[in-house]
C-alpha cells in the first residue's frame, strides 16, 4: 500500500511540477534519498491527491503562500510553473501575487512578480 | 474620484468581511482614522475590486497566506469568515489550510485548523 | 502497511507528546479527521521514527526552531514538555532557548523562556 | 569592566523601558538568571548605549521591526512605551507603524496599531 | 484627483529611491503595469507623502524592518540608497542595522551590514 | 575582563566556524569594526562558551533554526560546516534538516538539504 502512495505521489508530482519536479527528486538521490521518497509520498501522495479542492485553487494558494513567506524563491518558481501546468492563466497568477501586497507587503509581492516574469519569459 | 475609490472599497469590505470588517474600521476611528481610510481604499478599493481573479480564489489565497505566515490570527479569523461569505465551502477552507502543512509546517496548519474550528462553531 | 505507519506514529506521538499530543488529535476529530490521521502518520510515523538522530537531539532542535519562528506558542509548549519526556534536562532546554538570542533575537528567546517557565511550573 | 557594562545596561534599560523592563528582568530571576544578566549587558549595555544614532530613532526603528515581524507582541508593547519614554510623540509612533503596511502588510500594521491603542490608553 | 495622487507618488519615489526606483517601475511595465501604478500610488503617494514623521526616520525604520525580515534583499539595497538620498549618514544606517541584532538576531543583521557594504561601495 | 571575553569568543569562533568565521570577521573590519567585536564577544564569548549544553547539540539546534527561518543561507552554510567541525555526522545534519519539514515545511527543509549538499561536496 506504501507503493500505491508513492506511485500516486509520483504521478501527481509529474502532473503539477513536470520536469522541474523530477529534477528536484533527482538532485536529492545522492544526498538524501529518503527525503526524495518522503517528498513524493507526503506532499504529492497524501496532500495534492486529496479531493475537496481543485488543483488550480491549490496551486494559486501555494503561489500566494510562497510569495508571502518570501524565503523560498526556487520553490515559488516551480509552483508558478505548476500553476500554469494545471490550467491557471498568467493573469490569475499575477493577480494572486498582487493580492499579497495587502498581506505581506510590497517587497514580497514585487519579488513574486519578478519570479513570475522569469517563468513567463521561459514559457512564451 | 478618491470618493469613488473609498466607496468602492467600503462596499467590497462589507461584502467580504461583513460586520467584522466594519468593527475593525470602527475601532480605528479614534486612534488612527487615516489608517481606517487607507485600509478601505487600498486593500478593498484597489486590490479586491480588481477583475482577473474571482473573489473565492482571492479569499482562499488569503487564508493560505495568513495560515502560512502564522502571525496574524485575528485577520485569519476575519478571512475565514470572509471565505465563507463569498461562497467557499467549509471543506475548501479546511483543504487549503491542510495544504499549508507542506509549505509552512504542521504547527502553522494546526493553528489554522483551530481558527477555522472557532469560526465554524460561530456560524453553525 | 499504512496501518503499520499509523500505529508506529501513534506510539511515537504518545512517547514524545504524551497526553497533550492525544488531546490535539482528539480536538481535530470533528473538524478535520484526515488532518489528525496525517499528523500521526507523517511527523510521528515517518519523521520522528527515523534512526540516525536520537530523540533528545530531535526535541532540542524542535524547541530551537519553534522558539526562533516565534509564531506557534501552543506547539512550543507541547515540545518543551516533549523534550522533558524524552530525557532532556531543564537546563538543556533553557540553554537551547538562550542560544536563539543569537539567531532570532531577544524577543523570540524571551518568549521561549516564558513558555519554558509555564511548562516547568506545571511539572514540578 | 563587566560590572561597568552591566551597570550601564541597567541604567539604559530603566531609561528606555522603565518599570516594564524591570519587571521582565524580575520575572527571569528564578528560571534563567543568566538570561536576565545577558539581556541587561548586551542589548542595553552594548547596543542601546552606543552613540551614532539617537535614542528616538532607535526606538522608532525597533517599533517598526517588531511590528513587521509580528510575532512578539509583549515586546512591541514594551517598546511603544519605550518610544514614548525617550520622547517620541504618539503621532510619530502611529506613522512608523502605518509605514509598515508597505513592508509587511496590513495585518502586521493593524496589530501594531492595536498595540499602540492599548499603550496609549494606559498612558493618558 | 487620482492623477494628483499618482504624480505626488512619482515625485516622492524619485526623491527617495532615485534611479533605482524608476528602474523597478520600468521593469514592471510589461508584466504587471497595474502593479507599477499601485506601487507609485500607495507606498509613495499615500504613505511616504504623509506628514507627522520626517523622511529620515521613515527610511531608517524601513531599513530596520527589511533587515529584520531578512527576505527582501533587493528592496533593502534600494532603501539603504534611499536612506542616504534623504540625508541619513552611513553611521546612522550601520547603527540601525546593528540594533537589529537584538530584535532579529545576528544573521539578519550581518546580511544587512553586507548589503550596506555593497551600497556604500557604489556610492563612494 | 572585556579582553578575556573577547579572547574566549575568538577561540570559540575559530573552534566552531574555523576559517569561514575568521573571513566573516575580516570582511567586517572596514565597514563595521564594532560589529565584528560584538559578534565575537556576544555569540561566541557569552553564549557558545556556556556550559549546560554540549557544542554538538548547540550546532544541531542552530542548523535546525536557520533551516526553519529560511532567510539566512550564508549563515546556514557556515553552521553546517560548524556542525561537522564540532563532531556531528553528516547523517545527523541531514536528519535535523529533514525534521524541519514538520515545523517549517518542505521548501525550507529542501533548501537546507541543498545547503548541506554544497557543504558536503566541499569537504569530501
UniProtKB/TrEMBL annotation, chains A, B, C, D, E, F:
Residues 33-118 form the Carboxymuconolactone decarboxylase-like domain. It comes from the Bacteria. Signal peptide: none annotated. InterPro entries: 4CMD/NDH-1_regulator, AhpD-like, CMD-like. SUPFAM superfamilies: AhpD-like. This is Carboxymuconolactone decarboxylase family protein. It comes from Rhodoferax mekongensis.
Amino acid at each position: 500500500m506504501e507503493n500505491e502512495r508513492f506511485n500516486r505521489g509520483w504521478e501527481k508530482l509529474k502532473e503539477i511540477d513536470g520536469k522541474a519536479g523530477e529534477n528536484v527528486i533527482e538532485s536529492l538521490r545522492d544526498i538524501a534519498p529518503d527525503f526524495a521518497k518522503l517528498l513524493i509520498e507526503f506532499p504529492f501522495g497524501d496532500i495534492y491527491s486529496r479531493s475537496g479542492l481543485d488543483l488550480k485553487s491549490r496551486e494559486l494558494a501555494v503561489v500566494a503562500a510562497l510569495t508571502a513567506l518570501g524565503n523560498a524563491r526556487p520553490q515559488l518558481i516551480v509552483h508558478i510553473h505548476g500553476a500554469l501546468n494545471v490550467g491557471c492563466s498568467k493573469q490569475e497568477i499575477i493577480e494572486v501575487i498582487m493580492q499579497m501586497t495587502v498581506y505581506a507587503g510590497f517587497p514580497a509581492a514585487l519579488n513574486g512578480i519578478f519570479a513570475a516574469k522569469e517563468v513567463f519569459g521561459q514559457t512564451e
